[in-house]
Amino acid sequence: MAFRQALARSSQMVSGTLGNLLFQLIRNKLIALALGPAGVGWIALVNNLVETTATVTGGGVSDALNRELARKRPAYTQGQIVSTTLGISLLLMALALPAVAVALAWIVPQRLDFAVLALGVTVAIAGATGWRIIAGLFLGLGLARTMALATLAGAAANLALTAMLLSLGVTEPLIFVMLSPLCVIICGLIAARSRLAGLIESAAIRVMPAKGPVMIIALPVSIGLLLDPLIALYLRSVVGLQLGEVAIGLLQPGFLFVLLAASIFNTVAGITVVRWDQSEERAFSRDYALLLLAAFLLPIVGIGLIWLLQPIYPLLISLLFADEFRSGAIAVPWLLAGEALRMGGALFLFTFLSRQLGYLTILPRVLGLATAIAMIEMSPQLTIEVAARSYAAAFAANFALSLILWLGLQLRLYGNGGTN
Fold first, then answer.
1. Is this prediction's pTM over 0.85?
2. Residue 244 in contact with residue 45, Cβ under 8 Å?
């Protein structure tokens, strides 16, 4: 029965994700035709900064909501858990915004007044953070259908408004950066309004009574999830500073394919593996054997398919972007290979989070970022292919260390009797 419920929820989530991605692809095509590689590159760089910040301010608490609301024997009420996560997100956002301002001044080409840019990016971060909290609520309560519908509604609204603005001659990239998170958070709040009314407690937001269990999950998740998009942000910023905005735009088709793959994987994992309470799972159990098999098959099969499909990448880029983006096809297989390795490593890291050992998930991410930086620094000449190879190398290192740590945990559990 539990398996059937998980399968049904996964199907609903995947359907919503695929619909969302379809809307995003059409929107992306419209923007690519209107703004070209330079405009797309600028939007991608700022979006990366927004998503990286929102990962810190909302990613960890979203994961905590998913796990704590689904826990068999929770120590706090749902209202206390939700209100605590909201309070933590507000605090993290206040701490993160000064760093965002520095990043905007340093790595983002200045197309308009800095105060306007900072305000627009802050609005986008608030929307992206709010959506992560709403998504964590939906996942934790098992409301897959509601989340799928909210995601679809947000994507449809985003596409419709984008088409309307472009038809009116609006081409300011910042507007399109803000539009995506605003559309999805508004639709999410509408879908969750009846639930939120009974779960948000103003006193609990200030006191944060469930901060203990929430932070045990949220802190390592926030740090860990920060490092994954930070790799992409680092590569985009280096490419932008050395090769220009057009080069960032040429990387974007590959990163779009990465987003498509990651969205499907994260959707399925979020409603299945992430919600799997492994705290009492025995070492080297049947389920752990299946997890190990899946972690190896994902990158092996994925990378094989990625290289077989190389001849069609230029055509796909022309269809989804424009002909002037085709020279970015050389980066696509390397970026997708990195994503396949990230997926495999993530399956191992979910185990540590379930057993409240989330701090260990930071180590593979740190190694991955260090690997990307080392690859770039040791390359005699930076090209978009070198940047893409660095991305693949980063997650190869991530996967290797994740596997070593996971096997070490299994041996430790086995030596302690299987579960402790």
1. no
2. no
